[in-house]
Amino acid sequence: MAKHFKREAPRTETDRYDDGMPGSKGAWRPDPAGTVPESASPQGGTGGAGAPRRRIRRRAAVALTALACVILCAVAAAGVLLAPRLADLLGGWDPAEAPVADGQPGSPADDAETEPQPTEEELLAQEVDAKLSQMTLEQKVAQMFIVRPESITGVGQVTAAGEATRQALAATPVGGIVYFADNLQDTDQARTMLANTLQYGYEANGLPLFLCVDEEGGTVSRVGGNPGFGIANVGDMCDIGATGDTQKAYDIAHQIGSYLTDLGFNVDFAPDADIANNPEGTMGLRSFGATADVVAPMVAAQVRGFTDAGILCAAKHFPGIGGAAGDSHGTKIYSQKTADEMAQEELVPFQAAIDAGAPFIMVGHLSAPAITGDEDPASISSEIVTGLLRERLGYDGIIITDSMGMGAATSTLSDAQLAVEAVRAGVDIVLMPADFNAAYQGVLDAVASSEIDEARIDESVRRILTVKLGELD
After folding, report:
1. pLDDT at 17 exceeding the cut of 60
2. Residue from 402, 415, 428, 435 carrying the catalytic annotation
């Protein structure tokens, strides 16, 4: 049978296998008939030489497999016996808590890439909620008032902030203080008084105070034109409106805002958004003009100017008192227009102010029976405060009343009830009640009697804190 294979030369162990390439040494080749003898093998030689080696290798493999099985069984048995002891030693270690290398699923780096980070608005909302949760009801209600310094100190005319101011704010940490010309003597005096007042406010409750002034220019100016400050009055806004130049309106607001912030004020009750379309009205000099087309762009420009100067502003006097006859400082004033009619004219400048980002809207004391069904002033009307301003115009900033010491307000209700009705209508801040203590206690009593829900207080204070912590702190 050896004739079936042709050997060319003896082979060594290294030459044993043909690599399949022509000319390889020790290659075996079947005969043309293709028959392979039982004793022949590609490993070379006959079965007599290769079979013992194959048997040895098979026996070794079987032995190794058996040994491996014995070792695995031993390890498994040891694991069962030692598991309780290992658990005690590890002290409840959770594999899920094991460190994971950066870049691997579940690693801190991987989580940072996949988990969305909170926005600035979300972080501010968290801060506001945290602060609100720490406040007492008395502290929250106090934030809803801005008063003259005399109203809380008992001093006849305040021109400095000392121990009386410190004690007054510690007892009743109001939301803000508003100053008039008789409080402001010169630059150094104003700066010191405002800085001290701000510091005492922080000491009282950890919040900045709204430090406010009426500075429209022209007939309403507490600093410009005051001899102690050396700052010129910028003039009446009717003259600015007559130019048709919104850049000039912006520049004037920026100028006013700059000198007010230099003194320490952070709120200016301006611009005037009324349309002076009644020759018998009182807003002719203060308003930018007699039509919405003139007034609205001027108001928007001034909101931007004040904002860029770093001062908060308040568009006033919603829903627009320029068409009314009479002066609300002394008596009731009226408009017979419907809400739809006002939307075509009076509300347009306020919408422009809102679109420009006005942080405050001041509600006046206009009576609008065609809207409210009675003679109550707008400042205590839910139809106007909530129905028109919040819902129709979509405003979510701070709503503040005009002075509650004005005749159009005080001729309606008591100081306590005026404050209560303003809050019920949706107002956030009550400005200058004639009797602050009565107004403050009136709101507290209304919450205690469930006339006002504390959630309604929280709603307003949340808006106040959002501005204070987001813009002033």
Report:
1. no
2. 402
Cβ contacts of residue 338 below 8 Å, gap of 6+? 370, 371
> CB atoms < 10 A from the CB of 133, how many?
8
Closest CA to 125 of 472, 473, 463: 463
Under a CB-based contact definition with an 8 Å cutoff, are residues 400 and 314 in contact?
Answer: yes
pTM: 0.77
Strands 176-179 and 210-213: parallel
**To 10 degrees, what angle do helices 292-309 and 348-355 make?**
30
**Measured CA distances, 315 to 249, 269, 272, 279 (Å):** 14, 7, 6, 22
Residue 124 to residue 127: CA distance in whole angstroms: 5
Closest C-alpha among 140, 214, 185, 104 to residue 464: 140
**Is 402 annotated in the active site?**
yes
Read off the pLDDT of residues 236-284 as tens digits, 9 standing for 90 and up. 999 999 999 999 999 999 999 999 999 999 999 999 999 999 988 889 9
Specify whether the CB–CB gap between 301 and 247 falls below 8 A. Answer: yes
Geometric angle at alpha carbon 359, from 353 and 363, rounded to 5°: 70
Give first-to-last CA distance, the chain, whole Å.
105
> What is the C-alpha separation between 315 and 308, in angstroms, rounded?
16
